[in-house]
User: Fold Peptidase inhibitor family I36 from Streptomyces spororaveus.
Amino acid sequence: MMDNAMRKLSAGCVAAVSIGAILLGTAGPAGAWGRDGNLENQEFGLFYWQNQSGCVFDLVTNDLNFSDDKYQGSCSASGDWINDTTESYRNRDVYAWKVGTDKDMGGNVGEIPSNYAGNASANFKNKISSAKYTLHP
Assistant:
């Protein structure tokens, strides 16, 4: 669990990951990189459509303001803005994730447990603007 917490704290920082790989002596298996349009193990994903379909915004680290994020990959909404455009979610992370309907975890806040998937309720559908992981499973 501590390894996962450290990974989340350093994800997205290429220099830190490179230094960590050197210190450990091995790069290990391919890890989740996030924000590449592919929902992988140890990531949290917000989907464009219901039932975990369409483009996915895959996160490894917190994002407290979706206003500058766009969908990636070869999906139909690739290049479209993510803020307020997600209808479902899947948590493939060992930690729970919280989502907020406003930036900086404002507005309505909900929590998605580890290894859980579902459709956003009326309070969250096409309204999610921020997300962060928790340090509990």
Q: What stands out?
A: The two ends are 9 Å apart (CA to CA). The mean pLDDT is 84. Residues 11 and 61 are 7 Å apart (CA to CA).
